[in-house]
Amino acid sequence: MPSASLDATSLPGLPPPRRGKVRDVYDLGDRLLVVATDRISAFDVVLSPGIPGKGAVLTQLSTFWFRKFERLVRNHLLETDAAAFPPELAAHAGLLAGRSVLVEKCRVVPFECVARGYLAGSGWKDYRKGGAVCGVPLPAGLSEASRLPEPVFTPATKAEAGHDENVSFETMANEIGRDLTSRLRDLTLAIYSEAAAYAASRGVIVADTKFEFGLDANGDVVWIDEALTPDSSRFWPAPSWREGGSPPSYDKQFVRDWLETTGWDKAPPAPVLPAEVVAGTLARYVEAFRVLTGAEPLLPA
């Protein structure tokens, strides 16, 4: 495991970044530099300590998926090799390598586009309350981790801080328009379906995942942010999947499950992650990368 986590960046010579839950974003004028730190969040709260090397795994796995599905939708990647970044970034190449990308500037769609093929997380909670998720009715008698008859689109609001909120297709359409909402729904389900089929061939269930999209200067849709990572998806080893509980996973459900044992009320500050949870989380992220790509991630020293 890398020796220390990178919990924040500050690059001399560049303006201060906009900090999200995980990524530091630097405005370079005509494009953005996106740096994935090792911060980890759960229940919409940033936790401590970070997970050393996590940002590198997220960046490299996202790049794998962006390239795999670029025939379905254009993505925001401009450059992924830190050695080819502009000269003003050369002094930071060691820090940026493997965990950063240069991307196109886009107007961000203010919704997360979620695809669910199985009933878990907030979807399971919604289903228990009313038999539906984001207004999509589901069959009676489903259990936690049940496979759905077909994948469903369940959007959510985006929150830089605080809690995201599941919403209906109609709520999203009322804000950004029905045509764009339909386009994003269809793209979300198409990417999810192909990714789930590929992952299944590698022995992994993609239970659900969330995507973000933007619009370029011409109003065309661009896939942005991250792609099918353990932060944005539930990855379950297929042989150990069972209905009726939270299956073993390759994602941060491991962290959520530990937090649930602490009695934490989900308000900041969160309990400090013990060393075994930090190590176990990184091991799951690396294993997800290894199983899905057939390669090893490049981790910082």
Strand-residue proportion = 15-25%
CATH topology title of the largest domain: D-amino Acid Aminotransferase, Chain A, domain 1
Order of helices and strands: EEEEEHEHEEEHEEEEHHEEEHH
Class computed from helices, strands and strand pairing: alpha+beta
- Distance between the amino and carboxyl termini: 8 Å
Shape annotation: globular
Unreliable stretches (pLDDT < 50, length at least 5) are: none
CATH architecture call of the largest domain: 2-Layer Sandwich
Backbone CA Rg = 19 Å
Mean pLDDT: 95
Give the CATH class of the largest domain: Alpha Beta
- Given the structure, what is the number of helices? 7
Helix content bin: 25-40%
Structure overview:
Helices cover 29% and strands 23% of the residues. The mean pLDDT is 95. Strands 8, 9, 12, 13, 14, 15 and 16 form a 7-stranded antiparallel sheet that branches. The longest helix is centred in the middle third of the chain and has 24 residues, at 178-201. With 301 residues, it is α+β, with helices and mostly antiparallel strands. The chain is globular, with a radius of gyration of 19 Å. The protein has 2 domains: 18-107, Phosphorylase Kinase, domain 1 (2-Layer Sandwich), CATH 3.30.200.20; 108-251 and 285-293, D-amino Acid Aminotransferase, Chain A, domain 1 (2-Layer Sandwich), CATH 3.30.470.
Features of the shown structure:
alpha+beta, five-stranded antiparallel β-sheet, seven-stranded antiparallel β-sheet, about 300 residues, 7 helices, 16 strands, about 25% strand, 2 domains, single chain, Phosphorylase Kinase, domain 1, D-amino Acid Aminotransferase, Chain A, domain 1
